[in-house]
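Notebook p. 47: complex prediction with zinc ion.
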Amino acid sequence: MTSNEIGPIIVIVLFIIGLIIFSVRASRISYVKSNSILIGELRSLNSEFTFIKIREYTKYYFAHDTKRKFDRDSPYDFMNRHVYENLNSYKDLTNKISINLSMYNNYLDSYDNLRDFNGQVPDNSKLKEKVFIKYEEMLYRSMKFNSPTTNFFVEYYITYTSPKGQNHYKDCAEYPMNIIEQNIYEIEVDIKKKKTRQYRIKAERSIMTDSKRYEIMKRDNFKCKICGSSANDGVKLHVDHIYPVSRGGKSTNDNLQTLCDRCNMGKSDKI
Ligand SMILES: [Zn+2]
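Predicted complex, structure tokens below:
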């Protein structure tokens, strides 16, 4: 045998040894997989959990049609607008993430509890106890689900391209879930405030019944409180909120006065 022939032979021998080790290992793994109570329990636990797929990175673009608008905007402002306009889909996303998180916590608890089945080697095991437990432990670790997506990042781009396409301007920033969540919260507080305001205005206006109007006109002797005209002078009388409802005024007697249509028109929303 020449030294030239030894090289390839060593390679072949090593390859065969590797193959044997690999196949012994594979058959042991498959034996433990089908005979370990722990791994059986883990497989059935894994089949109970499906986490929601979430896109972790997203980009949004906003192209301005003038340089002026581009200069006045910022990626942060664009993020604000985008969250405001797509509030429900952002809420849906954060909701899915919290579902994933709580599901994963449940999973981890159940996973740890499976330790009770640890090392229960079958009586007629064809593997030695030590070997069986070693592979069982390896499988137990490798079959554990990784954490699902529990955060997301959005990149916001604002752009402007000059009419002939000679100049491009771009500004961008990336925000993680917690910043966006803070935004969602602020937007919702704002919406709630607006709703409460609209509700209050409606309630104050509903107090203004015909009998309430009559009561105020009678108190004011059926005369305009500003110019003193009455229906006899050919004017139409109204009951006016001194401090407008739209600005927080109430429909209480001390905030109501009789005005003619001319004076009322001039006053409009003023106090
Ligand atoms: Zn008047």
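Notes: Residues 3-35 form the longest helix (33 residues). The mean pLDDT is 92.
Next step: compare against the earlier run before touching the bench.
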